Amino acid sequence: MAEKTAVFTGGAPAPIAPFSQGIIYNGLVYCSGIVGLDPKTNKIVEGGVKERTIQIIKNLSAVLEKAGSSLDKVLKVNVFLTSMDSFNEMNEGYKILFHGPLPARTCVCVKSLPLDSDVEIECVGYI
Questions:
Q1: Which SUPFAM superfamilies does the record cross-reference, listed alphabetically (predicted)?
Q2: Under a CB-based contact definition with an 8 Å cutoff, are residues 50 and 97 in contact?
């Protein structure tokens, strides 16, 4: 049976709770949900949902790369928004860093997110 391996990188914000930035298992990397924190300052990036989405995807990219994967190898993305009014703005940031063929994706609206963020994203990629 394959073993799971934790992924940690300074290229993404340190977890704010007891979890790994990612887990490698059976040729896949499962990236934990990330909000738009700048890993250098540990503060939410300024601007809107678009800017935070871009930062989140850069953070996810750092975790994926540490695991031996990349954004091009992402299979599934889950997006959490605190308002569906932000859907188009999130997509503007999303399409800057994700290119075809695009991963499968789910986007849901939630009541609240950690650190009062308005967007959080998690993903699964292959190695």
A1: YjgF-like
A2: no
Q: How many domains does the chain have?
A: 1
pLDDT band at 31 (very low <50, low <70, confident <90, very high): very high
User: What's the whole-number mean pLDDT along residues 78-99?
Assistant: 97
123 bridge partner residues:
31, 77
The whole domain housing 50 covers: 5-126
Are the C-beta atoms of 85 and 49 separated by less than 8 Å? no
**Which CATH number fits the domain that encloses residue 84?**
3.30.1330.40
Q: Cα(105)–Cα(79) distance, rounded to whole angstroms?
A: 8
Is the CA virtual torsion 32, 35, 39, 41 positive or negative? negative
Indicate if the alpha-carbon torsion angle 11, 8, 91, 81 is positive or negative.
negative
Coil, strand, or helix at residue 6? strand
Q: What is the largest CA-CA distance in the chain?
A: 45
Q: Does 1 score more than 80 pLDDT?
A: no
Strand partners, 119: 81
